[in-house]
Every structure is written in C-alpha cells, then in structure tokens.
Amino acid sequence: MSPRTPRTSRSASRRTGLRPAVAQAAPPEARAALALRLQDARVALDRAERTLAQVRRLQSGADDDEHDPDGVPLSFEWSKAMAVRDQARAQVASLEDAAARADAGTFGVCSRCGRLIDPRRLAARPDATLCIDCARRG
Ligand SMILES: [Zn+2]
User: Which parts of this chain are annotated as the region Disordered (predicted)?
Assistant: First the structure.
C-alpha cells in the first residue's frame, strides 16, 4: 500500500549515526576512578550509618540526663554522627549522578555552559558538574 521510499530509509540510517555534539563517552580511567570513589563513599556511608545506630542505642539506653561524666554529651555525638552521615549520603548521591552521566554519555560536560570540563579537574573531582570557569563564577 505505502511502500517506503529509498530516501526515507536512507535518512533514517543517517540519523541513527548522529550523536549530540557535546556527548562523549567517559574514558575508561575516569569510569574506573568514579567506581572506586563510589565504592569508598558507600563504605563511608555504611560506617556512618553504623555509628549513628550505635549512638541511637546509647541514647535510648541512657537516662534523661545525657551528661556522661566521663565524656561528651550524647546529643553532641548524635549531631556529629548525623552530619557525617548526611555528608556521606550526599557524596554517594553525587557520585551516582556522575556514574549515570557516564552511562548517558554526558560525563565531563559542564551542566551550565555545555563545554567540556578539564580532564585534570575531573581526575580530582569525578563528580564535578561545572567547568572551572562556571565553578569560579559560583
Ligand atoms: Zn561551564
């Protein structure tokens, strides 16, 4: 009934060969560095969660008076453990985002200006989303 014309199929195959100009595959060493950091961050998060659980146990076992004569108040330990946990959690999330960008082919592309981020910056901070110029602009 409506056979495809050769012109249509030719333009379709040409389209599949195209890539967005800014997309790039993350280099294997960047992926490896990212995976390593993500692993470290997850270990740190796990440790922080355990510390938090430990403080929670101490707190629930403690009397209303949380002043331990030998040490710092549990509320201090608690907020410290919370801060460490939150930071570890944010780090994991940020690295997971970077890993997702590596899969999507947008790793190393500045999220603000669209230019490529300096590989040296990415080596130091694989989860960087801004190029140095945009980061400096704040
Ligand atoms: Zn930028």
Answer: 1-26
Compute the distance from residue 116 Cα to the ligand 1 centre, in Å: 8
Neighbours of 97 (CB within 10 A): 12
Per-residue pLDDT of the chain (138 residues; tens, 9 = 90+): 545 544 444 444 344 444 444 456 677 878 888 899 999 999 999 999 999 999 989 888 765 555 555 666 888 889 999 999 999 999 999 999 999 988 888 888 999 999 999 988 988 888 999 999 999 998
**Cα-to-centroid distance, 131 and ligand 1 (Å):** 4
Compute the distance between CA of residue 88 and CA of residue 46 in angstroms, rounded to an integer.
9
pTM check: above 0.85: no
